[in-house]
Amino acid sequence: MSELDLNLLRVFDALLQDNSVTAAAERLNLSIPATSRALSRLRRAMGDPILVRAGRGMAPTPFALRTAPRVRSLLDEAAALVSADREINIANLKRTFTIRINDGVAATLVTAVTAAAAAQAPGITLRFVTEGAESIEALRDGSIDLDIGAGEVAAPDLRAALLYREHIVGIVRADSPLGRHRRPTLRQLCEYPHVSASRRGRARGPLDDALDAADLHRHVAAVVPTAAIAAMLVASGPYVGLVPRRLAEQYAEALALRWFPIPAPLPEVDVRLLWHARLDADPAQRWLRDTIRDTMNRIAGERLTRR
Question: Which residues lie across from 168 on neighbouring strands?
Fold first, then answer.
C-alpha cells in the first residue's frame, strides 16, 4: 500500500465508477496507456486484480467493491481539506453526488432538484438510489453523500436539516363513488379494498390503530413496495390508497385520481436531509444541500399560492 498516492486513488475511483479503462481515462483526462499503467500499479499495491474481464467488458472484484466506498470517502475528505473556506466555481464543477432517497419523496423532489442543480452546475451528476437497510455506515464510508427520508438522527457524527413535514392522505380513482365525498368517514373507507405501500411488506399501519379504536376493519387487497406503485394500482381499480400529500397533489390529475384527508389523527412524517459531519465544510456539498433546501422552500411557496 506504500505505493499508493492520491492520484492513484482517483484512478481507482474512476475505474470503479466506469468499469472501463477507456472511460476512466476520458473522465480523468488521461491517455489510455497512462490509465492502464496506473491500473497495473494499483494491482501491485493492493494485491488484487481490481477489474477483470467479464464478456466484452470488465467487472470489479469483490475486494474492489468493498474498498470503493472507503476510497471515495478519502477523496471527499481530501477535497474538503483543500477547498475548505475557499470559493469554488459551481458552474465548472464536475462531480457525482449519490443521494439515497425515499420513493415517496423522490416522486415530488427529484425533478425539481435535478433541474435546479443543473441550471447552476451543468457538469454534475445526481445519482439517486433507493432506500435499503438505511444503514448510517453508507454515510460514514462515502457510499452515499446525502440521505433524504423520514427518521431520526441516529448518531453524533451525522448532521441533519428538516426539509418539511408530510401529511398522509387518501386517494381513489376519480370515478369512484368515494371520490364524491370531500371528507369520507372511516366507515366509508372500510367499504372499499385498500392498497398498502410498505417497503417491508406490512399490511398494517397507523390507520388500523384508528380503525381498531372505532371498532372497524379494512381489507388490504394488495401490499406494494412504493407509494408510486400504490398510486398506479389505485388508478387501475376500485381501491383506496394512502400516500404522501405532495405526491397526491402533483400526480392526482395526471393519473385521474382524487385525494382527500383521512378522518383520523395519523402522525405527520418529518422528512430530513442527512449527511456526515466530515462533509460540513465541503463547499460543493454545502451548495447541493442549500440547493435542495431552497428548492423545497420554493415548492412549498408555490403550493401555498395555489391554495
Answer: 244
Q: Residue 162: exposed, middle, or buried by beta-carbon count in 10 A (0-12, 13-18, 19+)?
A: exposed
Q: What is the largest CA-CA distance in the chain?
A: 73
**96 in helix, strand or coil?**
strand
Total length of the chain = 307
**Cell of residue 271, nine digits:** 422528512
Bridging pattern class, strands 51-54 and 57-60: antiparallel
Sequential pLDDT tens for the chain (307 residues): 455 778 888 899 889 888 899 988 888 888 999 999 999 999 999 999 999 988 888 899 999 988 888 887 777 777 666 655 556 789 998 888 989 998 778 888 899 999 999 999 999 999 898 876 567 778 877 778 999 988 777 788 889 999 988 999 999 999 999 988 788 999 999 999 999 998 888 999 999 999 999 999 999 999 999 899 999 999 999 999 999 999 999 899 999 999 999 999 999 989 999 998 888 878 899 999 999 999 988 877 666 556 5
What cell numbers appear for 85 in the block? 473556506
Cross-strand pairs, 222: 195
Bridge partners, 99 (sequence order): 128, 146
Query: Which runs of E-coded beta strand occur in 17-70?
Result: 51-54, 57-60
Q: CB-based burial of residue 101 (10 Å sphere; 0-12 exposed, 13-18 middle, 19+ buried)?
A: buried
Q: Which pTM value belongs to this model? A: 0.70
Q: Tell me how far apart the terminal alpha carbons of the chain are, to the nearest angstrom.
A: 61
Q: In whole angstroms, what is the distance from residue 68 CA to residue 73 CA?
A: 9
Contacts of 135 by beta carbon, 8 Å cutoff, 6+ apart: none
If 0-12 CB within 10 Å is exposed, 13-18 middle and 19+ buried, where does residue 43 land? middle
